[in-house]
Amino acid sequence: MNTELKKKTRNSEITRAHILETAFYEIYRQGFQGISIDKIIKNTNVTKGAFFHYFRTKNDLGYAIVDETLREIIQERWIRPLAAYKNPLQGILKRFKRLIDEWADENVPLGCPLNNLTQEMSAVDPIFREKLQAVMLMWIEETEKYLKKAQADGYLKQSVNTRALAEFIVTTQEAAFAMTKTMNDRRMLASIYNSLKVYLESKSAAKS
Amino acid sequence: MNTELKKKTRNSEITRAHILETAFYEIYRQGFQGISIDKIIKNTNVTKGAFFHYFRTKNDLGYAIVDETLREIIQERWIRPLAAYKNPLQGILKRFKRLIDEWADENVPLGCPLNNLTQEMSAVDPIFREKLQAVMLMWIEETEKYLKKAQADGYLKQSVNTRALAEFIVTTQEAAFAMTKTMNDRRMLASIYNSLKVYLESKSAAKS
DNA sequence: AACATTACATACCAATTAGTATGTTGTCAA
DNA sequence: TTGACAACATACTAATTGGTATGTAATGTT
Q: Model confidence over A69-126: pLDDT tens digits?
């Protein structure tokens, strides 16, 4: 009892989450192959013994970040907010726009963490590939669900292949951040957003 | 004289080019931070002394690959072929299609070398950033030149912002290979190509 | 209160890393 | 032909790497 208030000097959940969070930011900035366990434990104020108590290898840490951190980020940023919109097409565009507006200047040269890790690691390690692919697949499939809903509710032309459109939308969103990172210029975000908007409007049904 | 036929045991141009080529493929497969100089010289059959005779540091090797290898690849694959087409919009689509058709299966999980290196290194090292950005800028600007030509010749609607369209085209092309790599499925290429085709056709002027 | 177990801590290690120091040997111009 | 320099070759090094061996102390359970 009293699991919430008692101040423990040890708490496995918190320690593990703390390592994951720190490692996530390090990897986001330097890449997975660019960071070392020594750096992570230094920034976490956790000893090597503790680190290897939670993660058997450096790769295992990476896998956990994909399965937990990255998956959650995609869900939170791109999927769950769509539920609030009556017109999913509008929802997709509005959410994209908001993410752009709220994208911190310091993140402009850093890009999308999922894309970064994917481009770096999926060709290097098959387990990374599989896990990163699974996250991306989820993103596409969840997007398609909303496109189908849009079609059912008369917001999207019946002729549209929802899978292909979902792939194109997710690709464009990912690409927007990638190109913004490359050019180090946040105007790329607005430019690509507008192009996607025009494209989606050409696919939307007359209703509203 | 007789600089072509004499078989020299030493040839600085060839040796340097050989190192660059080998390193390019290693980096394409493992990433820049994932390779070591020892690996490169092993696969090149060049000694460490020779390597450091040509490149002062590992980073300098990377810079040379961006400035020379990657720049040339973009020129050869995406820019120069466009000169052969009367209608640049058609040229862009046809070239894209051909690259897709000829994209080797083994390259599907590897993606675009420019994008790989950019996503990995531009946040890590400012000189990488600057050089990679310059290559991408060239790609966009050269593409825009052809869009302007298309506009002048009546193939592209006058209302179109050529810079924004060039950015969108290059972004989509890069993104197509990135997503194909992520999903490890070459059908992504065709899917995204078709979306781009539809989009470009909506921007093309009536003339043919 | 005793105990087993989990959650850490410390010290170490072999391998790999980028880079250097110090050579030797082709090549070419004078 | 010789000398100067470029084009390599070999052996080394200090730092860093991921990971282990072996501890100790906090915690929940009986």
A: 999 999 999 999 999 999 999 999 999 999 999 999 999 999 999 999 999 999 999 9
* DSSP state for residue A206 in the 8-state scheme: S
Question: Quick one: CA torsion of A107, A109, A111, A117, rounded to 10 degrees?
Answer: -110
Q: 3-class DSSP state for residue B7?
A: coil
The CA distance from B2 to B14, in Å, is 16
* Best residue in A115, A168, A193 for a mutation probing chain B (most B CBs within 10 Å): A168
Model pLDDT for residues A24-62, shown as the tens digit of each residue: 999 999 999 999 999 999 999 999 999 999 999 999 999
**Phi-psi category of A125—alpha, beta or left, where left has phi over 0 and alpha has psi -120 to 50?**
beta
A33: Cβ under 7 Å from strand C?
no
Measured distance CA(B145)–CA(A101) in Å, rounded: 30
Indicate if CB(A59) is under 7 A from strand D: yes
For chain C, which bases have at least one atom within 7 A of a protein Cβ? 6-12, 16-23, 26-28
- The pTM assigned to this predicted structure is 0.93
Residues A173, B175 contacting (CB under 8 angstroms): no
Is the Cβ pair B171, A170 closer than 8 Å? no
Residue A7 approaches strand C within 7 Å at CB: no
Residues 6+ apart with CB under 8 A from B45: none
SS3 state at B103? coil
| Residue closest to B68 by CA, chosen among B121, B17, B3, B119 | B17
Beta carbons of A172 and B175 less than 8 angstroms apart = yes
Closest Cβ opposite residue B175 in set A129, A172, A184: A172
Crossing angle of helices A126-152 and A113-121, rounded to 10°: 140
